[in-house]
């Protein structure tokens, strides 16, 4: 496939992602008529109709939908090829895109990036949900920081376990008594502020609650860990999140009791990437540095 055809595939995907030629043209910094001509040229080359009007937006035809995954793979593979050639020519990986949740980005990934130097690859973060990490790798991210154990198709480095903490205000009796950890059963009957089911930590907490037959008096859902702490500090309930303390919130480790004793409830973090990635040696080295950074900062639990 020639260079212009590859570029047309990028244009096609831009329209797919934005839903309109106008939105895609703005993102691509090109004129709308020029983008429309490129899409029409691609349709003529493929002898397929890719879009059909649907109100003010463009909807993919059945043929267009079928081609999207292959188009994404081709664009990613072409970019990987160019990057691999650059690495061979210069001996340096210039840039890597990392997928991570907003909490991971804010809590430790951005602080880690601040410790890198111009000799390191430029790490560009892409916010991704917990459940889309593998797909993000197939759509162009070089590696992902995932709170789920990667499947067997991926290479990965474990980073450690991040604890789920309960947060109460400073005038709460637990804070006044200096309580630093409590069994999950101690939270029975309290009003709780939790992440929604878009979060792996919520599934982890719900599983533990079910196993120990613990229920809260009420649940408020909030998808931002910092807001959860703010609501807890304001006295609206006990907040549960994996983020580090802010706003004077008092942190309490949540203990999950089983036959082997009591262990802090926590989720495992991993750096994952596709096998055969052109920069996998560099990614693995970065993963080990991130693990050391997390341990030094006290973000992960001591095993």
Named CATH topology of the largest domain: D-Maltodextrin-Binding Protein, domain 2
**Helix/strand order:** HHHEEHEHEHEEEHEEHEHEEEEH
Return the structural class. Answer: alpha/beta
Largest sheet: 7 strands, mixed
Helix content: 40-55%
How big a fraction of the residues is strand? 15-25%
Describe the structure.
- The termini are far apart.
- 43% of the residues lie in helices and 24% in strands.
- It is globular, with a radius of gyration of 23 Å.
- The chain has ten helices and 14 strands.
- Helix 5 links the parallel strand 3 and strand 4 (122-127).
- With 303 residues, the protein is an alpha/beta fold.
- Helix 1 packs across helix 2 (21-28).
- It has three domains: 3-84, Arc Repressor Mutant, subunit A; 92-160 and 267-297, D-Maltodextrin-Binding Protein, domain 2 (3-Layer(aba) Sandwich), CATH 3.40.190.10; 165-264, 3-Layer(aba) Sandwich (D-Maltodextrin-Binding Protein, domain 2), CATH 3.40.190.
- Strands 7, 8, 9, 10, 11, 12 and 13 form a seven-stranded mixed β-sheet that branches.
